[in-house]
Amino acid sequence: MKTKMLLLSLLFTFFSCKEEYNSPKLDQEVLFQTEYINYAWGYQHHGLMIDSTGRVWSFHLPEKWNFADNNGYISLEDMKDNYYQTELTSITINKDTLQKYYSKLTKAAYGDLSEPKTEMFDAGSTSFSGFIYHPKTKKYKEVLIRQIGDVYIENKSIEAMQIYNWLISLKPQDQ
């Protein structure tokens, strides 16, 4: 009995230490982002951000864009700088739909990524991502859902596939 209790305690401790991927809540500014970048034949950079209220914001050639670091983190301040460079679109997502897809991000964060594969040249790349905010560090962790274009990378989790299919349905026709 003591062994079982000790094992349960250790398991509880282990899972409670994994704070970064515990059930995400809609209590952060930015939840999802799609982003297209192309340096060939003239610089292009545009995309969408989805906030926690379900509003969809667009950006086009932002003045100074902050990208996640090599470990996939972006500070709260840098994310706010990006967010302030967006404009409100007419697209709004209801709270239930937003919660449905955002709750899938926890499992998608554990998804294996495919090896990057060159598929095109000079087409640029579009990334589909979600973000999990860590209040202790004041940083967002970017969860790559999929990247398409010159280099293809896929998050292999079922949840990532579901999020991707939802995100592409929101993409404006001109992007």
Largest sheet: 9 strands, antiparallel
Query: What is Rg?
Result: 18 Å
Strand percentage lies at 25-35%
Percent helix, as a range, is 25-40%
Number of domains: 1
Poorly predicted spans: 1-23
Number of strands: 9
Large-scale geometry:
globular
SSE class: alpha+beta
Order of helix and strand elements from N to C terminus: HEEEEHEHHEEEEH
Overall pLDDT metric: 86
End-to-end separation in angstroms reads: 60 Å
Number of discrete helical segments:
5
Topology:
Blueprint: H1 2-16, E1 30-38, E2 44-51, E3 55-60, E4 73-75, H2 76-83, E5 87-92, H3 95-103, H4 105-108, E6 117-118, E7 125-134, E8 139-149, E9 151-154, H5 158-170
Antiparallel strand pairs: 1-2, 1-7, 2-3, 3-5, 4-8, 6-9, 7-8, 8-9
Description of the molecule:
The chain is an alpha+beta fold and 175 residues long. The protein has one domain. Helix content is 28%, strand content 34%. Strand 1 and strand 2 form a beta hairpin. 25% of the residues are buried. Residues 1-23 have low confidence and may be disordered.
In short, what is this structure?
By secondary structure, the protein is α+β, with helices and mostly antiparallel strands.
Give a quick set of tags describing it.
nine-stranded antiparallel β-sheet; alpha+beta; 175 residues
